[in-house]
Amino acid sequence: MSAGPSLDPLADESVTPLVRKTAAWAWRLLIILAAVVALGWLILRLEILFVPVALATIVAALLMPVVDFLDRRGAPRSGAVALVLLSGFAVFGGLLAFVITQFIEGVPALAGQVSTSIEGVGAWLTDGPLKVSEQQINQFRDSALEALRDNQERLTSGAVSTAATVTEIVTGALLMLFTLIFLLYGGRNIFTFVTGVVPTGVRARVRNAGRAGFHTLIGYVRATFLVAAVDATGIGLGLAIMGVPLALPLASLVFMGAFVPLVGAVVTGFLAVIVALIAKGWIYALITLGLIIAVQQLEGHVLQPLVMGRAVSIHPLAIVLAIAGGAVLAGIVGAMLAVPVLAFLNSAVRVLLADDPVAEEEAQEADDAPVIEAEPDDVEQLE
């Protein structure tokens, strides 16, 4: 393999084969890297378009099986889409209103607990082993207020940018809704039309790869939704039984955090521990921590093996790197989208590069069935 056209054949012969092969790999990898960077730049420039379409695709993966089920039972496709969307909006809107009501009712009690905790901390600082004087505490408070006044202009500009962000969110939400409607109604036809630009020789392979990737995405979103619901229910019930304020809003945060694997559950669980510590004391905080660890162990060792197939599972290192890269590029949204995109690409690329793409696609569909992998000792006993 040559690194490129040479003006002097003798010069090529004077270079060792290892150097020539390394150069050939190097310039090809540089071209691939340039293409990836250009694609990333384009996605960032069109973030207001890319993010709603990506979110709509993920939601479509969750709702598509329900729409297909109604379609197979004889319901008109448009009616099935409308029914599923309206039902989803009703459930989501009702839960959101209930959570907001609970949050409004629980904040005053939590604020009172925070005030009491602050007074307790102040008394400990002055009367405890540190012997901090009230003058020093007042100086720290005045310094904080002065820093707040000095950064007032920056906060004001941040409010203006927040207003612009709200406009972008509304625009993105409408775009996501329209995209979701068309994906649920005729997503397969859209995919067939888009892949029509692919050369005829590889068109079937590309379509098989796309179907395999979306099938894996359906399994991933369905499993993540179930795991998130179990996590939120278990932690929410535990917090409610202990009488921790804002139990339902915290459970909702746990549900949303579960869509960011590994990291999201840790962060939202830490918030629940902090609220329990402020409101009920360190004993309840330790109980809350134990509850969260128990739920996470249930999720990792029982739920995920049951609801996620081998084709959906991804190595934890790849998940961490994907989340970190997504967070750096696009913040919280990037962290949420990183793993679904990785799951899609994992299956699609495997089919795309397989010697027999149809057989690979069928194997992945078989692997997506719920499985519990046996331990080596169990296998030996069965033999």
Please characterize this protein's 3D structure.
This protein has helices at 9-13, 17-45, 47-72, 77-127, 134-150, 152-194, 200-242, 247-257, 263-280, 282-307, 316-353, 357-367, 376-382. It has a domain at 202-371. The two termini are 49 Å apart. It is an all-alpha fold. Helix 7 (200-242) packs antiparallel against helix 10 (282-307).
Q: Which features does this protein show?
A:
383 residues; mainly alpha; 85% helix; disordered C terminus; AI-2E-like; AI-2E family transporter; membrane; cell membrane
Tell me the overall shape: globular
Structural Rg: 27 Å
Q: What is the count of DSSP helices, taking H or I runs of 4+ residues?
A: 13
> Strand percentage, roughly?
under 5%
Distance between the termini: 49 Å
Largest sheet, in brief, is: none
- Mean pLDDT, rounded to whole units? 77
The SS-based structural class is mainly alpha
List the topology elements.
Blueprint: H1 9-13, H2 17-45, H3 47-72, H4 77-127, H5 134-150, H6 152-194, H7 200-242, H8 247-257, H9 263-280, H10 282-307, H11 316-353, H12 357-367, H13 376-382
Helix pairs in contact: 3-4, 3-6, 3-7, 7-8, 7-10, 7-11, 7-12, 8-9, 9-10, 11-12
Outline of this structure?
The chain is mainly α.
